[in-house]
Amino acid sequence: MERGVGTVLVATDLSPITGPLLSTAVQVGCRDGVIVALHVYTPEDYLDVRRETGMAVDQYIANLRAEMRYQLEQLGLPPTAVRLEVAEGWSIPEQILAAADRLQAGLIVMGTHGRTGLRRALMGSVAEEVLRHSRRPVLIMPLTVLDAVEPREGVVV
Fold this sequence. Notes:
- The protein is α/β, with parallel strands linked by helices.
- The chain is built from seven helices and five strands; from the N terminus they run E-H-E-H-H-E-H-E-H-H-E-H.
- It has a single domain, classed as Rossmann fold, CATH 3.40.50.
- Helix 4 crosses helix 6.
- It is globular.
- The two termini are 19 Å apart.
């Protein structure tokens, strides 16, 4: 039996890259691994939504979780295959690293395309910050490489 890395933390911004990241996490985690998908939103993200819609924070979080479940369904994964977590924080990399420590993750999986432009220039790349400060292995997958990733035999994705 193949041995996985234990807990695999998938940091997601809920963009289309999430599916391939989860698929890769399932492959790397093998049969004995626990997969945790984490989405971190900033207070600014929520305030923007609240200004536009008046949505309460608990509904906002429920919508984020629903989007995560939808992406799991698109992969054909049962809802119990991946534990979903949503966190709030001003620093997304700090929240990802804190979750990895709390979960004692054997691996962090994340993509690189995320946010761009001025906001990235001011904040720095989330993936770069996680990679720079992590005490755990980090698998960073650029969007351009994801098309080449094929599922391993015997892994349902």
